[in-house]
Amino acid sequence: MSARGRSYRYVGPVELKAAVRPDSGGCLIGSAAGFSDWITERSAAELTEPFTFVVGTDGILRLAPRRSEHVACAGGAMVLSAGEIGFVREADRWAVTEVSNQSTGYCPDVTSWPAVALALDNVGLGRPSGFTHEVVFRRCPDCQEHNIVREDDFVCVFCGSDLPQTWNVDPTA
After folding, report:
1. Of the chain's two ends, which shows fewer C-beta atoms within 10 Å, N or C?
2. 151 Cβ partners below 8 Å, 6+ apart?
3. What is the mean pLDDT of the chain?
């Protein structure tokens, strides 16, 4: 774990990571001006849906269209968090309306929020105090399948085994 939090490697389908080009990746958003430039290029239709985001291990926010794969947004690299994010224009600035850690490719823990908060603060975006939709990911110790835990039911949907209470998706972490 780094000073900025745990890093997450891609744990999704290998064919998706294999398709990532080295020069690909989401748009780097390292400043308020960078965000302003990026958001003004979005259409009204694009702004009605959340975007794909990752926070790289450098702490910088990267954004891509919603249907983009997180691994492509990250350029295949490790991340501090990943999910979906929506924006709205408030009186004098842009703010985050919704943000989740929903990424089945990286399966970041809900504890990755501080990295997201810092990345958003660094570009001057208004934000909530935490994920507006938390997704709890676990790997089944018996069948090894990745699960999304719903309603605090820590039972594998594939084989019925109990799932651990603590994050365990990446066995190398």
Report:
1. N
2. none
3. 94
What's the rounded Cα separation, in Å, for the pair 149 and 155? 8
24 and 82 share one domain: yes
CA distances from 72 to 30, 39, 146 (A): 18, 20, 20
Whether residue 108 is found in the same domain as residue 142: no
Instruction: Give pTM, 2 decimals.
Output: 0.94
- Please check whether residue 154 lies inside any domain of the structure: yes
Give me the domain span that covers residue 173.
Answer: 135-173
Q: What is the pLDDT of residue 4?
A: 64
CA-CA distance, 98 to 120, in Å (whole number)? 12
Q: How many residues does the chain have?
A: 173
Tokens of 47: 């702004």
Question: Which long-range contacts (C-beta less than 8 Å, at least 24 apart) are formed by 15-20?
Answer: 16/69, 16/71, 16/72, 16/105, 17/71, 17/76, 19/72, 20/69, 20/71, 20/72, 20/75, 20/76
Please determine, for residue 25, whether its predicted confidence score (pLDDT) is greater than 70: yes
In what side-by-side order are the strands of the sheet with 27-29? 27-29, 61-64, 51-56, 79-89, 94-100
